[in-house]
Task: structure prediction
Amino acid sequence: MSEVVLEATGLVKTYGDLNAVDNLDLQVFKGEVYSMLGPNGAGKTTTVEILEGLRNPTSGTAKVFGLDVMKDYDKVRSKVGVLPQTFEPWDRLRPPEAIEYWASLFGRKMTKRDIHALLEKVDLAHKDKVWGERLSGGEKRRLGIAMALVGDPELIFLDEPTTGLDPQARKGLWGIIHALGDAGKTVFLTTHYLEEAENLADRVSIMNKGKIVVSGSPEELVNLYGGGTHVILRGAGEPGMASLEKLGYKSTIHDRDVTVHVPSLMRTKDFMVQINQTGIGYKDFETRRPSLEDVFFNMVGGRMEEGVLK
Amino acid sequence: MSRMFADFKAFGRAYLRSRTGFFFALIFPVILILVFGAIFSQTGTQKINLPVQDLDNSYWSQTYLRFINQTGAFTVQMISSDIDFDQYIKDELLVLAMQIPPGFGTNVSNRLNSTGPPAMIILKGDPTNSYFAIGQGAANAVASQLAFYGNHVNDVAVVQPQTIGEPQYTFIDFFVPGMIAFTALTTPLFSMSTICSEYRNRGFFKLLGSTPLKKSEWLAAKILWYIVLMLASIVIMYAVGIAAFSAHFTITPMAILLVIVGVFLFTSLGMFLGVFVNNPESAAALANAIGFPMMFLSGIFFQLDSMPEYLQYIAKALPLTYLAEGLRATMSLGNDVVAATDLVILLVSGIILFIVAARAMSWKGK
Result:
């Protein structure tokens, strides 16, 4: 098992009668991209801000690099980079100036070449003469990520880094986050975009109403909670449907194409071997694997649209 | 320390790129000096407190003072005869005071009988201050009135004007120190209250909270920035005062200390206000609500003793009063004793406000 970088035990945050974070336990391991996925109001940002040392929990403990975030965060602050959900750059600082400023706060001397290289990394080097207030939404977030990286942190918190961005800007940020993962950084990513968690995360926790509903790698979650795979047997017709029923599979037919549901716990390959052995005739087949969206629907009981639970 | 300077540099750079901040810190005070300087150097007002030391205490000195009272232009306040008149003026930062020398009554009596020199009345103050001009006119008129007690006698009593400090002192020498105090209030107070609110609203505090920068370092960087800005502002105001109005005030070490402590105090006050408001607009409104009355009640534009008594009590409770008074004392009157007292009052108030503001302010979310 890898080294635990981040750990929360029995974390609770209440506001009056509302349990924003409700007895939450989690562990994040060194070098993984961990994603906390959930709708708006699920408690993701409250949790991440507690873990960043920017908000005190009502009860429970949170540790970063083995140190209590409420007591000893100062000792590990330089190993942690943060991009808050509401990140905005300083209006009248240019990207290189903002980087230089942030690096100084982390006690790091950066040459102009270092700064340029970092801005290149986030595809912002061409905007080095533009004030922060004149950057686009995606450029601002990229600058935020660059600022979070100035101290060469081991752990990086990215709180909804792509919210509100257009698809192209979002994909651009995904590339940066992938690169962080490839570089062995530990990334704690919160998001309400299912495809983002599925695409970027090594492990995902689905959070709803202050609780973690389920955790695991996207593949595990899909296999365990996605509800199984749909296999479409082209041209199998009524005979195929009857044969499947004899094998214990329920199916539906549309234009002689038979769709059968293969349960989560069964591998699709084994199913195909089984039906081939029975001699069911079909012209072709295709599979439709479930996604994290199906997992979310099955576990939370609703679908998310732009962070809103429907 | 390096983190504090990093924050200082970034903040200063962004601040100077804000036209509003640049205007209010460096240009606005100059405009006020030019406008108010032009207006008040030429005109006067009518309400005058007149401290009087009667060293003669004779029938004629009391008669003279009775006439002075009857003009309705003065509120006469008697100064004890055993007090050093010049020192009293200096200590109380008076712009106008009267002394009736010993022998006044004898000289009046002699003069009414057409013998001896005219009796002398000393009117001391700032000859370019509007009060002084009014005071001198009224004192001369009353002195002329004594001639009616004699027959065909002129010049029974004459008013001898004397200046406080250097004779070339002008209105601007009194006004510019007040303007320096005014700027030391407005720039940090309005700016800091807005900045604190804006930083919280836009998540800058949380962002800074994620760095090794300490809250105290951030606060110190802001205070240092406003001190540097104010020192630049003083140099500009000094240059304008000299170039436009031939001013003669001096920038003393005590004045620098007062400005530093004043900026410290008003920056802390701005932080304190910024803690309690949710958006920059409310912060600006609250700073205006506190700052503007303070400007007008602290003797920047109007003499304190021209205000109703209850307002003078309020003025005494306002820190800007002490900053303006201290700066005038050291820069225009060379009175560092009064300035030092004001400095201590400002420093104690500043430390209290700083502690309260620093404790009330949090970078963490609730």
